[in-house]
Design a protein that fits this description.
Blueprint: E1 11-17, E2 26-34, E3 40-47, H1 56-60, H2 66-69, H3 73-92, E4 101-102, E5 108-109, E6 114-120, E7 124-131, E8 138-144, H4 148-158, H5 161-168, H6 174-196, E9 205-211, E10 216-221, E11 234-241, E12 245-251
Antiparallel strand pairs: 1-2, 2-3, 3-7, 4-5, 6-7, 8-12, 9-10, 10-11, 11-12
Helix pairs in contact: 4-6
């Protein structure tokens, strides 16, 4: 695997939040201060769905929507983990005891005055919240780094021919980069969907610049999505990673 270092270039500081009362379902709950943004609150945790039980929502004081109640255990666990980190992020922003419910397209419904985004894998969850009069688009995505075999199987679905040429030059990093681009495009979708209110595919944005030294990645819209999201508009995302996961975020 390419990943040889733990990267925190875009993170100014990490504060551990004690969660002894939430174990063993939630562990390693952290508040991250991002280097390039103010009035943004980023919470990340690890969780173990094997320790999810019928009382878990009650323990965390979270409302379980009927749509989630009828889902399989894994889906209920990941939903709860996402709502736990969102509650902590909202609390840091000054919004206490606020529930983030499910809205149109199953996207989160945020309280007035903030924008936010939630992401999860099968063992990690993150949420970012920002002040709405300061930020228009916020999206975060976390992915497990895929294998080289999986990268080959999915690359043509995620990257257009121009993007594939850009990353094929970095053969040692191929699986890492496919995961990174996939995660970044997911973060863009999460940031833009509340404004676009319709689905758009991976080809709607194109990778135009990638800097692994400074850990940012830039995309350009390939088609107009709304009057304010026009073809040619550029988005710069940042990312962090460890040995197993990549997390990307768009805040603008």
């Amino acid at each position: 695997m390419f990943v040889k270092r733990v990267n925190k270039n875009n993170i100014h500081s990490i504060k551990i939040i004690e969660v002894d009362e939430f174990r063993p379902f939630i562990s390693d709950l952290h508040s991250l201060t991002l280097s390039n943004f103010t009035n943004v609150y980023f919470i990340m945790c690890n969780y173990n769905s094997n320790h999810f039980c019928s009382r878990s929502f009650q323990i965390f004081g979270c409302i379980e929507p009927l749509l989630i109640f009828s889902a399989v255990k894994k889906r209920r666990a990941e939903y709860l983990a996402g709502r736990v980190v969102s509650m902590f992020a909202l609390k840091l922003s000054g919004q206490n005891n606020v529930q983030v419910m499910i809205g149109e397209g199953r996207s989160p419904v945020w309280p007035e005055g903030v924008r936010g985004s939630i992401t999860h894998t099968d063992d990690r969850a993150c949420a970012i919240v920002g002040v709405s009069d300061q930020y228009q688009y916020i999206g975060v995505d976390c992915e497990k780094i895929i294998s080289a075999e999986t990268a080959v199987e999915i690359v043509q679905v995620i990257l257009n021919s121009t993007e594939r040429r850009r990353i094929n030059k970095r053969t040692e990093e191929f699986a890492f980069l496919v995961t990174l681009v996939f995660s970044a495009k997911e973060a863009i979708f999460k940031a833009l969907y509340p404004h676009v209110k319709k689905y758009f595919d991976f080809y709607a944005v194109e990778l135009i610049q990638l800097c692994l030294k400074s850990d940012f990645i830039i995309f350009k819209l390939q088609k107009s999505l709304t009057p304010s999201l026009q073809k040619g508009m550029k988005f710069q995302l940042y990312f962090t990673f460890d040995q197993t996961h990549i997390t990307t975020w768009l805040i603008t």
